[in-house]
Description:
Elements: E1 11-15, H1 19-31, E2 34-38, E3 56-59, H2 61-69, H3 73-80, E4 82-84, E5 86-90, E6 96-100, E7 108-112, H4 113-126, E8 130-133, E9 136-142, E10 147-152, E11 157-162, E12 165-168, H5 175-180, E13 187-202, E14 216-221, E15 226-231, E16 237-244, H6 245-250, H7 254-264, H8 266-272, H9 274-283, E17 287-295, E18 298-299, E19 303-305, H10 308-311, H11 320-337, H12 342-372, H13 378-393, H14 401-407, H15 412-444, H16 448-474
Parallel strand pairs: 1-2, 1-12, 2-8, 5-14, 12-19
Antiparallel strand pairs: 3-7, 4-7, 5-6, 9-10, 10-11, 13-16, 13-17, 14-15, 15-16, 18-19
Residues 15-21, 38-41, 53-54, 57-58, 137-138, 169-171, 175, 197, 240, 307-309, 315, 318-322, 324 line the site of flavin-adenine dinucleotide (FAD).
Amino acid sequence: MEDRAKVKDKKIAVVGAGLVGSLEACMLAARGYEVHLYEYRGDIRTMEHVPGRSINLAMSIRGRTGLGAVGLEEKVIKEHGIPMKARMIHNLDGTTRAIPYNKDGKCIYSVGRRYVNEVLLTRAEEFPNVHIHFNHKLLTTELEKGVMTFLDTSTNQEVTAKADLVIGCDGAYSNVRKQMMKKPWFNYSQQYIPHAYMELCIPATPDGKFAMPPNYLHIWPRGKFMMIALPNQDKTWTVTLFMPHDIFLSLDTPEALLDFFKIHYPDAIALIGKEKLVKDFFANKSLPMISVKCSPYHVGSTCLILGDAAHAMVPFYGQGMNCGMEDCVVLNEIMNKYDDDLEKVLPAFSEHRNPDAEAIVDLAMYNYVEMRDLVNSRLFLLRKKWDDLLSRLLPGTWVPLYTMVTFSRERYHLCISKKKWQDNVVAKIVKFCSVAGLVAGFLFAKTEAAHTLANSFLHQVNSLATKTLAVVDRS
Ligand SMILES: Cc1cc2nc3c(=O)[nH]c(=O)nc-3n(C[C@H](O)[C@H](O)[C@H](O)COP(=O)(O)OP(=O)(O)OC[C@H]3O[C@@H](n4cnc5c(N)ncnc54)[C@H](O)[C@@H]3O)c2cc1C
């Protein structure tokens, strides 16, 4: 992107230097704005341990596009990302089976949250027009005036600053959004799910190798709860245990924990190690998961929210970061369209992005059920077979939902409407097969043997039809 003189005198404050805020700072700097990036924490590049959420994340095309816009896709994906080409399902009896993400062999990548954040901060610092202020906790904002008050946690002093535009990238519990909620016509809803999550770790083997096949997202679906594991660069695995909060509370002794694992995750005990499992479980806290919808995302031409601040979602579609990074790409596209006229850009962004953000928040909630339950069910696999068959017969026209969401930049709300259309088509094909079977049965069942054969065929078609319709209904 070339420097653009007309925006050079405009100052933009980005609050929150997480994954989305640090990417947004780079993108605005590349457009020529003077950018001030304010972050509550210290500089994570200098910390031994960074407190907070998930250690690694699944990155797909939307996040990659964001990184690509600031020249970092190659670095993050090629030098650091670990490809995960399929889900690896761990059954109760210890057997495993792979379910590929799609028929073309496209994959998602396991990336370290800290690594990606650090790379983005370093990139931001390379722009002379980016100024990073660590240890600055936003306290209040006058949204229409762009006036912000921070607590400088290194001096314990309050500091005020002013910007032409304040962009809140301050996460699911956004302070900027809290101030927007005081405005009329700002809609907001949030939902905590009954499940919580806790991160555990599968260490590398004594000879420094991965303890499980690395190029998979491993899943232990157990109906009411589940566990997943993503590979790390150091050959360890970050394991995330998802289950209802009350079950976490009930596992209050090492014996209770080990008994629970023996029943539900027997193969994981050896992988994690008995002692380590007990030590890590009781040293950790289970954390809640929240889903947030709100609109609009802007106030006049002076304030905007992006990322989790605008649309926090449960993590089951692996899209929170991807969607947040895509926000930055979409905002950039809209800035191009309206030639940086913020009075037009901000409302256009809210209008364009809201249906997509709400769609992926809903899809993530849907996958909350699918991952722990459907992925393990024969009906889910049956529907997957239909999808694979139809996408082979109609390449480009029939794209399964997961593929659209994860491997394309199709607008999220269109992914949902296309899936509904597909469900209709599948239901019609199945009904047609049933009727055709019935007619064939009557026409050709002249002898008793042929009659039995026709009946059995009919029975199978009917059973397939009923099962497929059940899947269509559930989705
Ligand atoms: C268990 C789990 C697994 C996940 N897995 C995936 C995955 O596989 N793929 C995926 O795409 N997404 C995943 N996500 C979602 C992803 O983590 C988030 O969507 C993403 O981190 C959002 O980035 P953000 O920058 O908007 O917010 P955050 O990452 O929360 O960053 C917000 C930043 O703002 C700062 N801040 C907060 N308040 C203030 C304040 N008052 N003043 C100044 N600074 C402030 C914070 O310190 C932080 O640095 C997962 C989430 C969880 C919980």
